[in-house]
Amino acid sequence: MKRSALTAVLREEDGVYVSECPELGVATCGDTPEEALVNLKEAVEVYLENAKEPGLDGRGAGVRAEDAPADRRNTLE
Protein backbone atom coordinates (compact mmCIF):
# COMPACT_ATOMS: atom_id res chain seq x y z
CA MET A 1 0.00 0.00 0.00
CA LYS A 2 1.43 3.36 -1.05
CA ARG A 3 1.64 6.08 1.63
CA SER A 4 2.16 9.78 1.04
CA ALA A 5 3.28 12.43 3.50
CA LEU A 6 1.56 15.81 3.25
CA THR A 7 1.82 18.97 5.33
CA ALA A 8 -0.87 19.86 7.87
CA VAL A 9 -0.83 23.52 8.93
CA LEU A 10 -2.86 24.41 12.02
CA ARG A 11 -3.64 27.96 13.15
CA GLU A 12 -6.16 29.77 15.35
CA GLU A 13 -8.30 32.50 13.80
CA ASP A 14 -10.93 34.35 15.82
CA GLY A 15 -11.52 31.45 18.20
CA VAL A 16 -11.72 28.81 15.45
CA TYR A 17 -8.92 26.41 14.54
CA VAL A 18 -8.14 26.24 10.82
CA SER A 19 -6.27 23.28 9.37
CA GLU A 20 -4.88 23.25 5.85
CA CYS A 21 -3.00 20.95 3.50
CA PRO A 22 -1.22 23.43 1.22
CA GLU A 23 -0.02 20.79 -1.25
CA LEU A 24 -3.61 19.90 -2.12
CA GLY A 25 -5.32 23.22 -1.46
CA VAL A 26 -7.60 21.54 1.10
CA ALA A 27 -8.66 23.42 4.24
CA THR A 28 -11.22 22.99 6.99
CA CYS A 29 -11.81 24.09 10.58
CA GLY A 30 -12.96 22.99 14.01
CA ASP A 31 -13.71 24.27 17.49
CA THR A 32 -10.57 22.56 18.86
CA PRO A 33 -7.18 21.77 17.31
CA GLU A 34 -8.03 18.07 17.44
CA GLU A 35 -11.36 18.55 15.66
CA ALA A 36 -9.72 20.69 12.97
CA LEU A 37 -7.10 17.99 12.31
CA VAL A 38 -9.68 15.18 12.23
CA ASN A 39 -11.72 17.24 9.76
CA LEU A 40 -8.61 17.83 7.65
CA LYS A 41 -7.80 14.12 7.54
CA GLU A 42 -11.32 13.39 6.32
CA ALA A 43 -11.17 16.19 3.73
CA VAL A 44 -7.79 14.98 2.42
CA GLU A 45 -9.09 11.41 2.18
CA VAL A 46 -12.09 12.58 0.13
CA TYR A 47 -9.82 14.67 -2.09
CA LEU A 48 -7.47 11.75 -2.71
CA GLU A 49 -10.33 9.35 -3.40
CA ASN A 50 -11.46 11.68 -6.17
CA ALA A 51 -8.02 12.75 -7.43
CA LYS A 52 -7.15 12.01 -11.03
CA GLU A 53 -3.53 13.20 -10.86
CA PRO A 54 -0.69 10.65 -11.12
CA GLY A 55 0.59 9.55 -7.73
CA LEU A 56 -2.54 10.57 -5.82
CA ASP A 57 -4.56 7.42 -5.35
CA GLY A 58 -6.08 7.90 -1.89
CA ARG A 59 -4.71 4.68 -0.39
CA GLY A 60 -3.19 5.06 3.07
CA ALA A 61 -2.39 8.75 2.90
CA GLY A 62 -0.88 10.28 6.02
CA VAL A 63 -0.77 13.98 6.74
CA ARG A 64 2.22 15.36 8.61
CA ALA A 65 3.46 18.84 9.51
CA GLU A 66 7.25 18.55 9.52
CA ASP A 67 7.97 22.22 8.98
CA ALA A 68 5.51 23.60 11.51
CA PRO A 69 6.65 24.78 14.96
CA ALA A 70 6.99 21.89 17.41
CA ASP A 71 3.75 22.76 19.21
CA ARG A 72 1.85 22.73 15.89
CA ARG A 73 3.18 19.45 14.42
CA ASN A 74 0.71 16.68 13.85
CA THR A 75 0.59 13.37 12.07
CA LEU A 76 -2.71 12.09 10.78
CA GLU A 77 -2.55 8.39 9.93
From TrEMBL:
Gene3D superfamilies, A to Z: 3.30.160.250
Residues covered by region (Disordered): 55-77
Residue ranges annotated as compositionally biased, kind Basic and acidic residues, are 64-77
Q: Which residues cross the membrane?
A: none
InterPro entries from the xrefs?
DUF7387, TA_system_antitoxin, TTHA1013/TTHA0281-like
Checking Pfam families in the record gives: DUF7387 (PF24113)
Q: Please give the superkingdom of this protein's source.
A: Archaea
Protein name according to UniProt? Uncharacterized protein family UPF0150
Species of origin: Methanofollis liminatans DSM 4140
